[in-house]
Amino acid sequence: MDVDPALVEMMGAVFAEYRDAHPPPKTVERNAELWRRLDELGLVRLTGAEESGGSGAGWFEASELLAAAARNAVRIPLAEHDLLACWLLDEITMPVDAAARTVCVLDDDGTARGVPWAAGSDRVVVVWRDGDTHRVADVDTGELEITPGANLIGEPRDTVVADVTALGGVPVAADLLEQLRLKAALTRAIQVCAVLDEIVLSSIDHASSRIQFGRPLSRFQAVQHLIADAAAEAALARAATEAALMTAVGSDWASTNLRFRVATARSCVGHACSVVVRNAHQIHGAIGTTYEHRLHEFTRAALAWRSEFGSVRYWDEQVSAATMAADADMWALITD
After folding, report:
1. Alpha-carbon torsion 169, 173, 176, 178, what sign?
2. Distance from chain centroid for Cα 162
3. Rounded-to-integer distance, Cα 256 and Cα 247, Å
4. Which residue stretches of the chain have pLDDT < 70?
5. How many beta carbons lie within 10 A of that of residue 295, not counting itself?
6. Residue 32, Cβ density class (10 Å: 0-12 exposed, 13-18 middle, ≥19 buried)
7. Which UniProt keywords are listed (predicted)?
């Protein structure tokens, strides 16, 4: 992935500076000050077309932005706003203003659960089934019934109820809805990979600096094995995620094996979380369970994000379904 190193450095510096000045809150809300700062830098609508107020960047740059925020434990709805909600509005040629947005897909009863950042957004891009098709509307949050909720790290995960008969909306093609689902799933894979890398780095640093029985923890073979296993799982998750991202961008989200690639990435990421989080807490010992140590900012995030936009079991089943299909060409699934 070819991304300007200066841009990557700037992204990391912005989030590192913010994190240094703002200890992690127990209740997470969209920070208006940070949002304005990111907007001034052109990062809030990083992938939006320039003619509609965006920065004209692509998913490679967006993945670096999501990773930079995750590595610094900064919670902000960049993926939901830019890569999902505003992207969908652009695709169906609906106007996009400066309002902060998220997106949700309603159940048949007009309810969406676990919606990221709904209560703190200005508008929600709502998708619902209308007979044999789906419709989309860009709705002010004041017109929706929103019950606040939170995930494991305190990020808003709200319940949204809408009266679809009052929304109107416009039809959306099935392929766009499938893209929305795959893009949402891939954003979480990117974020989890970033925190897994941070967990491994923290484990290496702790094992190298912590002296036990007269020598660093890193000199004990059992600890070396824990680190090696965690690093291997994190590397596998990143490789699968980057392969899915390369396939998506290279095919403009149209490759016939894209769903398999995304499912594989999410499966690898989900299972890697179990090993990396477990091993990291064994390496860190008691200090890793304290609120003061930063380990929990990453381990809890990994466990929270891996089950959003599809559980680990769901993505495992998608991988199995693709590989067991009667006409499945495994070589094509893996190499195309």
Report:
1. positive
2. 25
3. 10
4. 326-336
5. 21
6. exposed
7. FAD, Flavoprotein, Oxidoreductase
What is the pTM assigned to this prediction? 0.94
Q: Structurally, how many domains does the chain consist of?
A: 2
Three-state DSSP state, 128: strand
Identify the bridge partners of residue 133 per DSSP, sorted by sequence position: 130
Q: Are residues 236 and 124 in the same domain?
A: no
φ, ψ at 11 (rounded to 5°) = -60, -45
Q: Could you give the C-alpha distances from 77 to 115, 201, 213, in angstroms and in order?
A: 11, 25, 45
In the chain, what percentage of residues exceed pLDDT 70? Answer: 97
Residue 292 Cα distances to 6, 28, 279, 282, angstroms: 32, 17, 19, 17
DSSP per residue, 139-187: EEGGGSEEE--B-TTS-BEEEEE--GGGT--EEE-HHHHHHHHHHHHHH
**Together in a domain, 163 and 72:** yes
Same domain, 189 and 290: yes
Give me the amino acid identity at 210.
R
Structural domain including 289 reads: 175-335
**Is the same domain home to 196 and 330?**
yes
Beta bridge partners of 123: 101, 140
CATH, residue 145: 1.10.540.10
Q: Is residue 142 domain-shared with residue 204, that is, in the same domain?
A: no
If asked whether residues 11 and 113 sit together in one domain, one would say: yes
- Please tell me whether residues 149 and 279 are part of one structural domain: no
Q: Does 46 share its domain with 131?
A: yes
CB environment 168-201: b (16+ within 10 A), e (fewer): ebeebeeebbebbbbbbbbbbbbbbbbbbbbbbe
